[in-house]
Design a protein that fits this description.
The chain has helices at about 15-40, 45, 60-70, 100-105, 110-115, 135-160, 165-190, 195-225, 230-240, 240-260, 270-285, 290-295, 300-305, 305-315; strands at about 40, 50-55, 80, 85-90, 125-130, 190. It is built from 14 helices and six strands.
């Protein structure tokens, strides 16, 4: 088995628990407070509007396309490539929900294609659709419900597999990772669409998996090291899984980085969410998850209910 870091390393990670917890939850609280103030740059998927997929005979200059659309009365148009360099998608986002129908009526794919066509570079319409604001609201609601459902499912799973203290620590750690990813998109005002939401949900899966690996080792060490203190066991568990955590994170990071660089602008937001989530999830599994267990006063008795029950029976007269 490959070990980037020796199995018997003894970095005193838990010594930094107070600093790491203050930093982690300070940033988390700041991110939560920023969201209602700054808001998200929701894409057409959530707000409604018109989307047109166009094919040029030759690869166009996107800045020139944006300038032409703005001159033609289509302000704040989102222009991106998809597939090849000669295929672009134009998104027209209404300023308010009531303007959606008017925008859809006037900004048809044919009108946009005619505006952008040049004698030596004709444009054809591949697809032109209108997404109503009501559909956008339903998508946003479904996204929140999906997030809540996944959190609830993880909570049930970890409670059954481990014990409630582990479940609480894992869910708080996962929520910390999700909040920081969302805060990044809120801070940078990057477009938030369905692909970004999919990236956020995948970050949740990665985060919980990384945390469970560490918690599995914690459970094994609590059972094997009878006389060790909880802090020593948690510290040793983090060190023993450190090599695995770094290798897994590095492979996942390189994969998503390739998607970010070569997957096209349509997948850029999802890849960016995953990149940030992998980095934050790796750090939180080391510096947040186990310190939370220590704060919750986890002990061997929490993992060995039979031994606890036997001890209680021995104490009875």
């Amino acid at each position: 088995m490959l070990h980037l870091i020796p199995y018997d390393t003894n970095f005193n990670v838990m010594r930094l628990r107070a600093i790491s917890m203050v930093i982690a939850f300070g940033i988390m609280i700041a991110g939560i407070a920023m969201m209602p103030i700054r808001g998200f740059n929701f894409a057409l998927d959530f707000t409604g509007g018109t989307v047109a997929e166009l094919k040029f005979e030759q690869a166009p200059d996107l800045e020139q396309v944006r300038a032409t659309l703005e001159a033609g009365g289509y302000e704040n148009a989102i222009v991106q490539t998809f597939g090849s360099a000669s295929d672009i998608v134009v998104r027209l986002q209404p300023k308010d929900a009531s303007a959606g129908e008017a925008v859809a009526a006037s900004a048809t794919g044919g009108a946009i294609a005619e505006l952008l066509s040049e004698p030596d570079n004709r444009v054809s319409v591949i697809r032109s659709d209108f997404v109503g604001p009501q559909v956008g609201k339903e998508l946003a609601t479904n996204g929140v419900l999906a997030l809540a459902f996944v959190v609830f499912g993880f909570l049930v799973y970890i409670t059954i597999r481990f014990e409630w203290k582990f479940a609480v620590a894992a869910i708080i750690t996962t929520l910390h990772d999700i909040v920081l990813v969302l805060a990044w998109f809120c801070l940078t005002q990057r477009e938030f669409d369905l692909t970004v939401l999919a990236g956020v949900l995948s970050v949740m899966g990665y985060s919980i998996n990384d945390t469970i690996v560490v918690f599995d080792r914690v459970r094994e060490n609590f059972r094997a090291l009878h006389k060790a203190e909880p802090m020593e066991i948690l510290n040793r568990s983090v060190n023993q899984t450190l090599s695995r955590t770094i290798i897994t994170s590095l492979v996942a990071f390189l994969t998503v980085l390739a998607l970010y660089l070569y997957g096209g602008q349509s997948l850029e937001g999802m890849a960016e969410a995953q990149i940030i989530g992998i980095v934050i999830g790796t750090l939180s599994s080391i510096f947040v998850a186990c310190p939370l267990l220590l704060w919750l006063k986890v002990s061997k008795q929490d993992l060995l209910p039979k031994a606890r029950d036997a001890a209680e029976l021995d104490r009875r007269p």
